[in-house]
Structure formats: structure tokens, C-alpha cells
Amino acid sequence: MFRLGTRGSPLALTQAGMVRDALMAAHGWDDVEIVVIRTTGDRVQDRALAEIGGKALWTKELDRALLAGEVDACVHSMKDVETLRPDAIAIAAILPRADVRDRLIGAETIDALPHGATIGTSSPRRAAQLRRLRPDVTTTLFRGNVDTRLGKLAAGEVDATLLAAAGLERLGRHDTGVAIPLEVMLPAPAQGAVGVETLAHGEARGLVAAIDHADTHRAVAAERAFLAALRADCHSPVAALATVEGDALRLRAQLLTEAGEQAIDGSAEGADAVELGARLAGELLARAPDAIRALFG
User: Rounded to an integer, what distance in angstroms lies between the CA atom of residue 51 and that of residue 245?
Assistant: First the structure.
């Protein structure tokens, strides 16, 4: 039986179920086994990811299981996957992308937040974007799964929080929060995309490739190439979104200082995802103020 590795959070299990169903439909299989693997990121909830190892906290245990042959493929939220991956592992498929926007929970709009509001978020990108729009607000570390974060909000620990629309919708929380327009807040690179990794060589890669959504894969590749060219990490306030327009890709991006006082925005078009991401990264860094350039490279 084909074995899918995944984290054990409700959202991760939902996403693994999406991949399982797609594989069963593509190949006429009766079942796919879902193997839950507990990650360091799930165990350590009281510190920012950047302080304790970055995005690898979501992937290293899954990578180990894949490389050891304990699973045939691993399911990831692509925004949690490092840009530099082991040569032995390949992104074999990405599912059709969901809503890429953030949702604000606790107020109808960012302008409607109370003066001096405290916003819970673990994302440097969201914190910087919020403080650029509302310099009076403060942000505080907010980690845990969706229910944990919503519980902290309900308990009054913060005035509001931001969560990805895609995750909320996959959990059936279609009416939770208000979507923030992309013109107000660009998302994290690869937000809303679910990816499946396999060994770079072997039968599993071809089997999983059958469920790949080509347009989403191209868009995410451009966003990840943008991150890679910046050498961005978990400390870096970066937003990026690629869209497919005919045969071409259009990539929009924003770099910010950590407190959001300064930002640089830009866009570019091209046919090759990796070239496009690298080119826009170079263009933005060339125009960026020193305070932003200091965060990258």
C-alpha cells in the first residue's frame, strides 16, 4: 500500500486526506495509508520558529522518514518548506491552489482595529505588513494550530489575529474572519499550496506526478525561486505571489523591514519560473534601502 507521511495537526491531516483522495482517483487505488509523524515544530510551541531552527522544524522528521523508506511520499504546506531541499528529495506534485489571502479575525478591517491593538501572529511578514499599515499596533508571538490560536483570541489574550484563508477553508471554517484584499496585503510565498515530496529517483515520483497541477506548480516555483535568490529565512519579512497569465507568469513581491517602517514593492513577468523569481529578487534588492538589504543575502 502507498504510504503518505504527514504532520498530525487537524489541518495537516485534512491536507493529507486531499492528497490520498487525489491519488486514489488518479490510479484507481482502494486506499492509501496516512502515516502521522510528529515534528519538532509541533512539539515546541512557546518560541518563534526562527529561534529554534526555522522551517526545518516542520520537515526534518518527514525527510528522515522518506529517506529511510518508512513512507513513499510526504505532504507539506508549501509555505513551510525550506527553499533549499536535499538533492535526494523532489517536489513531485502540488495540488490546485486555494485562496491565497490572509483573513483578519477580531475586526472587520485593519483600519477598524482599536488604537494600540495587540495582534497575535508568528509571521514576521504579517507583523511587518500590519505595522506598516497601522504603526500604533503591537504584535505578539502566536503559535499553535488553528483551534489553539482561535481559542487564545476568544480568551482575550489578543485583540485580533491573522490566519491563512486556505487553512480555514480546508477546516470548514468558511465564515471565520474577513479576507484581506491582495492590494492591502500580499501573502507569503507559496501560501495556499499543498505539495507532495518523494524521493527524486524511484517509482513514487511518477505516481505522485499524476496529481500535479501545472499552473500552481509553476507559480509556486517562481515564488520559491524568489525566496532562494534573496536567501530569505524565517526572520525575513517577505511577500510574493505569482499568477499564470497565458503562457507567462506575473510575479508580485514586497520586502519590508522587520518593523514595517520601510518597504519595497515590485513586479515582473516571464516564462521561466526560476529565472523570473531570481530576476525580481535582484531588481528589488537593487532598489531597496540599506535597512532592507541588510536582512537578505
Answer: 38
Exposed, middle or buried: residue 182 (CB in 10 Å: 0-12, 13-18, 19+)?
A: middle
Arithmetic mean of pLDDT, 36-64: 64
Cβ contact 137:130 at 8 Å: yes
Residues carrying an active site annotation: 80
**Over the chain, what is the mean pLDDT?**
92
- Predicted model pTM: 0.91
Burial (Cβ within 10 Å: 0-12, 13-18, ≥19) of residue 75: buried
Q: What DSSP character marks residue 137?
A: -
Indicate if the pLDDT at residue 62 is higher than 70: yes
The number of beta carbons lying within 10 Å of the beta carbon of residue 205 is 20
Characterize the bridge pairing of strands 3-6 and 73-77.
parallel
Helices 146-154 and 10-27 sit at what angle, rounded to 10 degrees? 150
